[in-house]
């Protein structure tokens, strides 16, 4: 056999021997992604104009630090109106608990006495007309009107008696309960508005770094719009996309090595979560046969740095490669 036919085989054997001598190792499975921090937003509690900004993007802030201030004039006026309504409800409840005044009771007694006197006069007039009517000395219609007037006077007496009894018995328990409920509702509205007024002075709910200020001084953001975005947490985490061949090999709690582009060495980490629903692989995580396959989003928590640059200085969005 010609020697030329042995050349490809000889080259393959030489490559295998060279790899064995140089200690070639298979490339460990890896996933691509980005470095992320936990993000929280401070929303707008009211559609008010931004009148003050006390921080800048990239600034590190402590918990409770002042961030922004919104215009408080309208919210403060609404709070004053609600406080007046609560005061009115409180006075109405006190009036119910105190019951009717002595003067009102005396007035009701006087009204009853007047009604009784009118009833006596009407009854006497009707009795005088009865015999005259039988003798046909007066018209029958006059007798009928006198009888109706006497009955009406008796009805007025009974109404005055019941009105006096109602005042003497005082306020009903149900009315007092309704007054108490109205006062509680008014006080709750005051408390809610007071919280809204305090929220116009935006403060940091947690210590972190200001990542974004979407609105500028003088803007008027809608209610619920994010006014400040903070990066919080003790250290960042790697968010990577696991291709289908790698999904069955990675488990929650598994150790991993996180490589950051532009940083020597690897950071130790541990898989803290893997999404159960697959998604399409983003363009920057595509490699080889993974182009047409689904991937699973995973998060790798970084362990504290061991003598190297602190993890707090690592930027969000930096590309990472995670090996398992």
TrEMBL record:
Pfam families from the UniProt entry: HH_YBHG
InterPro entries, sorted: HH_YbhG-like (IPR059052), UPF0194_transport (IPR050465)
Signal peptide (from-to): 1-22
The protein's name in its UniProt record: HlyD family efflux transporter periplasmic adaptor subunit
YbhG-like alpha-helical hairpin domain segment(s): 79-194
Alphabetized UniProt keyword annotations: Coiled coil, Signal
Location within or outside the cell: Cell envelope
Cell division keyword on record: no
Organism: Stenotrophomonas aracearum
Domain of life: Bacteria
């Amino acid at each position: 056999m010609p020697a030329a036919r042995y050349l490809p085989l000889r080259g393959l054997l030489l490559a295998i021997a060279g790899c064995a001598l140089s200690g070639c190792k298979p490339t460990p499975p890896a996933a691509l992604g980005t470095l992320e921090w936990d993000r929280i937003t401070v929303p707008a509690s009211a559609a008010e104009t931004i009148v003050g900004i006390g921080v800048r993007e990239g600034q590190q802030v402590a918990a409770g630090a002042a961030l922004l201030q919104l215009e408080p004039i309208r919210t403060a006026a609404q709070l004053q109106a609600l406080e007046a309504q609560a005061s009115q409800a409180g006075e109405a409840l006190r009036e119910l608990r105190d019951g009717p005044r002595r003067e009102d009771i005396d007035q009701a007694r006087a009204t009853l006495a007047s009604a009784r006197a009118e009833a006596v006069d009407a009854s006497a007039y009707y009795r005088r007309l009865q015999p005259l009517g039988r003798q046909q000395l007066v018209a029958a219609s006059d007798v009928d009107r006198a009888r109706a007037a006497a009955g009406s006077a008796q009805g007025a007496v009974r109404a005055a008696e019941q009105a006096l009894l109602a005042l003497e018995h005082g306020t009903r328990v149900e009315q007092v309960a309704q007054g108490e409920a109205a006062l509680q509702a008014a006080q709750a509205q005051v408390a809610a508005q007071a919280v809204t007024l305090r929220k116009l002075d935006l403060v940091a709910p947690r210590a972190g770094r200001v990542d974004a200020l979407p609105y500028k001084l003088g803007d008027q953001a809608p209610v619920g719009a994010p006014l400040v975005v903070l990066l919080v947490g003790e250290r960042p985490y790697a968010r990577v996309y696991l291709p289908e061949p790698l999904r069955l090999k990675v488990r929650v709690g598994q150790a991993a090595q996180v490589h950051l582009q532009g940083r020597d060495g690897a950071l130790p980490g541990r898989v803290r979560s893997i999404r159960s629903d697959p998604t399409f692989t983003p363009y920057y995580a595509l490699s080889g046969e993974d182009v047409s396959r689904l991937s699973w989003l995973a998060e790798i928590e970084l362990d504290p740095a061991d003598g190297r640059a602190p993890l707090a200085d690592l930027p969000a969005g930096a590309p990472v490669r995670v090996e398992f």
